[in-house]
Write a structure and sequence with these properties.
The protein has about 300 residues and is α+β, with helices and mostly antiparallel strands. It contains seven helices and 16 strands. Strands 2-3-4-1-13-16-15-14 form an eight-stranded mixed β-sheet, with helices on one face. Strands 6-7-8-5-9-12-11-10 form an eight-stranded mixed β-sheet, with helices on one face.
Length: about 300
């Protein structure tokens, strides 16, 4: 049976990025950028592991232990966040008051999906962009991501054929690929991937929501179009809600992605740390696996 995508990627759900100093970056994302705090996740010994902040309803996860690679010389990888004009102006002023360097505001051409943008790095060199969009979604959210690729044609084929994205839009030297709700996956072609793209850091990935009807076809098509599936460790550890299906994967340039098909009428489930680690420990004992020393917070291996 030939795998076929009927609907394609619905939304970008969340982003996970590596940071070396969790507290410092959390302060920057909350106080300077004005994003909302959701939660801090912890290791079994109580030490902080990751902080979730919100761009609208989208989670941006700041994950330890970060990476040693410096900022990339290209425009990717980059997270674009859509905000209102008022929020845009406030963030610009906050960056000025914090003496944090940025580029812009850049006014885009009338046919562009964005009206204007400012570009800057977070304290650990992750490229960021705040923009005011001309097209939906205009509410605060993750507007777009931009990944590096060494082969634009191959990358565009992967996203259109394996994930069913819409017709790409040219935006300067970038290509923007819309999802069904208007969020976009961007690609910028480079001669060689930066160390920032090569060294993902623990947990670094972009997660997308997809329809249940397309999930099996996408899984079948990922490797056919140059990607690589990693399976779903969270499901192995008993952390998925009943009926939810998900895999982690790499695109042809080794950018780490995730696709998730939620169960019908599924409610948001964010387990507390105690319950999460209880499930992980129980699942790995049952499967004859042990927690690594790092995963167990430096305690005795399980």
């Amino acid at each position: 049976m030939v795998a076929e995508i009927r609907y394609g990627v619905e939304t970008i759900d969340h982003i996970a990025i590596p940071v070396r100093d969790l507290e410092f970056n959390q302060t920057f994302y909350l106080n300077v950028l004005g994003l909302k705090f959701k939660t801090t996740r912890r290791n079994p010994d109580g030490s902080p592991r990751q902080t979730y902040v919100l761009a609208g309803e989208n989670i941006i996860g700041l994950h330890l232990p970060g990476i040693s690679a410096g900022p990339s010389a290209s425009a990717g990888p980059r997270i674009g966040i859509s905000v209102t004009s008022e929020r845009f102006e406030q963030v610009e002023q906050n960056l000025i008051l914090a003496t944090h360097p940025f580029k812009g505001p850049i006014q885009h051409a009338a046919e562009a999906p964005f009206d204007r943008s400012i570009y800057f790095d977070d304290p650990d060199g992750n490229h960021l962009e705040f923009c005011v969009r001309r097209v939906e979604p205009r509410s605060e959210c993750i507007s777009h991501t931009v990944f590096e690729t060494c082969n634009m044609k191959k990358a565009l084929t992967f996203y259109s054929e394996a994930l069913g994205t819409a017709v790409p839009i040219a935006f300067g030297n970038e290509m923007l690929i819309p999802t069904r709700n208007g969020q976009m996956i961007g690609l910028v072609e480079v001669a060689e991937l930066s160390e920032r793209s090569k060294k993902h850091g623990r947990g670094c990935h972009m997660a997308m929501d997809v329809p249940q009807e397309d999930f099996d076809s996408m899984v079948a098509l990922v490797e056919r179009h140059g990607g690589k599936s990693q399976g779903d460790k969270r499901a192995d550890d008993g952390l998925r809600p009943e009926g939810e299906r998900s895999i982690y994967l790499f695109d042809p340039d080794n950018n780490r992605l995730q696709i998730t098909a939620h169960a019908p009428n599924q409610k948001e489930e964010l387990l507390d740390d105690e319950e999460k680690w209880r499930r992980i420990i129980a699942a790995r004992k049952e499967q004859g696996r042990g927690l690594t020393r790092w995963e167990s917070g430096g305690k005795k291996l399980l």
